[in-house]
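Reopening this ticket.

The earlier resolution said the output was attached, but the attachment link was broken on my side. Pasting everything inline this time so it's all in one place.
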Amino acid sequence: MSAFYHIEQRLLIISAKMFIAYTKTKSKIEQAAASALSYTNWDHAIIGRAYILFSVASGVIGILMSTLMRLELHKPQIQVFNKISKLIYKSGDFGDQAKHLYNVTLTAHGLIMIFYMLMPMLINGFGNLNIPEQLGVRSMAFPKMGATSLALLILSLIHTVLSLLTKGTPTEHGAATGWTLYPPLSNRTYHAGKSVNYIINAICLACVSSLLNAANFISTIISQTQPRKLTRIPLFAWSVLISSVLLVLTLPVLISAITMLYTDRILNTVFYEPKAGGDPALFQHLFWFFGHPEVYILIMPAFGIISEIVSKFTKKPVFGRTGMVFAMGAIGLIGLMVWAHHMYTVGLSYGAQKYFVTATMAVAIPTGIKVFSWLSTLWRGKVSLQPPMLWALGFIALFVTGGITGVQLANASLSNVLHDTYYVVAHFHYMLSIAAVFGVLAAWYYWFHKIFKKGFKASLCTAHLVVTFIGANATFLPQYFLGLAGMPRRCVDYPEGFAGWNKVSSCGAYLSAISVVIFFYTILDSIINNRRSPKAPWN
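Inline output:
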């Protein structure tokens, strides 16, 4: 009894001390709680910065995964993932486990870079940071909605991480479906565990987050801009508006597709089960109705950013501004009607193939208008080769390279030959992994003073540009040759004949990883040396 008495006495003393400490710091606690509970009242610029930093963190994860995959593909035979599987599983068929882990890494890399890096950065981050200021309004139409969607996006990323830690098969962790989640790879036959369920939850949360942001941007731009002045708003605002409209039109279709996949897994429905009258091709149609416009959703804000940078550093208005607006609208409209050019191999009729070939090639017309408008703006302009302008010029060069190969892949006959080869991987990454990222980094340095309220060292930025440009091209240009030679994608091993270009591609990936180090060093240099920036550094 005495022991219990002493314990009780000590607990009373500790409680009294805690109460005294609480009363002394009550005001500070209340302030912290109020700050935490009032996150939905954040200023649009704070929300924009939060999205940008979230995207940077997600991008680092995605880049580490891609570097790990290129490290594996540096030489034939399974090496890196074989060692990882031995560390994780200790026993079993390490070869099969290594193959599974490779595809898990590939799946997570694709989802993270698209849903958690590019989309939050280009649309939500730079959009929240700049659009109210560009429109001359104090805040977004629904200030609370931005913070709510950010919370949903963070929750979505948590679900993606949980999928990596949860068993996808009876013996292996993670979802090895590819970022497209095609059935039957994503059904219970191949992934009986809960990892795919977590991926579906993550995508649904990310879609709801993007829908909230899209509605907020549309409301802000339309309702807070007088109709007669709508044609005068900056091209970046136009690009975000068009991307937001595309999101509103396509995300519900993606949610429907993966919800049916979820019910197939949980409720034994048969939407995608061919043995019971379902059709896996239905999922592909629904997925790519979102997936192809998603390319334009991501690249569209980059169009607006590049237009503003080119205009600023040539001291000229963008050539054919109205044509640029109509071109972006046409790209978005045509993008909604060409989804099945990803599906030439599923048995489309000859008439359907002719339509999708023609419609896909038609995208090149408004895209060409944009490129020629940028070049016409540069023509005889007083071009100032400041760091953001250098990134913008890099974007134009890389975007044209990726666009040309996109027109080639629009041809059904050629696409059937190159489908599921590294040629498609190279094209896709030239559009999103390089061109879109160059757009991101052009905006990053253009609005660096808004993100950090500081300046940066121009020489470091230039070094970052050079290393990134060389590394990115060295990574993905060889993959065109690998694709033409017939190397299939999503394979952890390959014959000796593909070793040469794979080694070059992997070395390019290592160089790209070094560019990320330079990127963070530029930020640290700015903060540590307190590099000051004027309010309008590019005037």
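Reporter confirms the inline version is readable. DSSP finds 18 helices and no strands in the chain. The first helix runs from residue 2 to 24.
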